[in-house]
Amino acid sequence: MKICLLSEYFYPDNMGSTGTVLSNLCRYLKDNYQDVDIDVITSKNLYRGGECCIPKEDWNGIRITRINCPPTKQESTVKRLLYGILFTKLAFWKLLFRTKYDIVFVVTNPPMLAEAAWWTKLFKHTPFVYLIHDLHPDVPVRLGSLPADGLIAGLSRLIQNKWLHAADRVVVLGRCMKKYLGKAYHLPESRIEVITNWSDPDTVTPTDTNTKFRKENTLDGFVILYAGNLGKFQNFDDLLDAASTLSKIHPDITFAFVGEGAKKDYIRTRAEEMKLDNIRMFTHVPPEDLGDLLCSADVSIISLEPGMEGLGVPSKMYNILASGRPIVALLSKDSEVAMVLDEAKCGIQVDHGNPSALVDAFSRLYEDETLRSDMGKNARSIFLEKYILPKIAEQYHETFLSILKANDNIA
Hints:
The protein is an alpha/beta fold. The chain has helices spanning 18-32, 77-96, 114-124, 138-143, 151-166, 175-185, 212-216, 237-249, 264-273, 290-294, 316-323, 336-344, 355-367, 369-386, 389-406; strands at 2-6, 37-43, 56-59, 62-67, 103-107, 128-131, 169-172, 192-194, 222-227, 253-258, 279-282, 299-303, 327-330, 347-350. The strands form two sheets. An eight-stranded mixed sheet has the order 3-4-2-1-5-6-7-8, sandwiched between helices. A six-stranded parallel sheet has the order 11-10-9-12-13-14, sandwiched between helices. Helix 8 (237-249) packs across helix 13. The mean pLDDT is 92.
């Protein structure tokens, strides 16, 4: 099967972006399935800045064509839109004048890129698989950055509906997303595949908490870790309120916030105003130190913005599961994360707006070493059972095969 992937980011991007995930997936499919042939149309841009200057290359059998286009990751909404449209048009132009592919595999980065797959299907009858990482305009509408009843949101929904119903298969990252697409866009369940993200069991391996990160930063005692984006739409007030209470009950607990984002200064300022000496702030660690960082925690935190269930699944969950640490998840019971924690007994879900429940969850795990250990073991066990690349790649391969069979492209 000859597949063409469309994505703004791809190898050698290695900073944990969509490009990293897709690069690893394509590499595994190419190396382990003899019937898979992969081309990639991408940009020269790297997720955290800079460029890959090779316009065309062969990455051990994966042919990569790079489009010279400004990055869509811009502060200006107008620039994001214009550069996304430009990249989409150039990607379609590349597809139009190539030999026909069996499948176009397109992602939501940039959000309008599915338009290139839609036009390719119209002109060349090429089926496409549509992988949803972030659903637009639903995400900005839910976050309040785009008026729900405005013209832009209305038109965007109509276009998104067109892409979803034209796709031969829509891949989502969680069961909550599948439910949402059925309800909001009336997409039949048979057209939706739930295929999660994953982590590398060799890159993130459970160790004791005597880590390099702790030693270098003089972190002692019980550590509760939040590692990831400190975004402007995320709720950190519940965590800070819980930290305030815990500073009096369990003064040897430290909250470590590792990452960057619009709310980093807000967290630091509010912690100073509240006189919280149990809050520590750190910048991102290099990718090769991720496992060491995660194993520095006694408990890890996952947070999803209120109302965002069904629109995304935090990919950090799979790295935390791999690290063998219990999770406290600040999000809705309807989210994929909450379902996994409940099914695997590897963490505790807490609703937003309930700092006292957060305090109770952290206190339980602090006081009960056996519970912590059991949840950590359960986390690693469910990770190895479900969330490693060989199992995920097999699901993608089966999805691609089913589309080819449905289109009579193979015997």
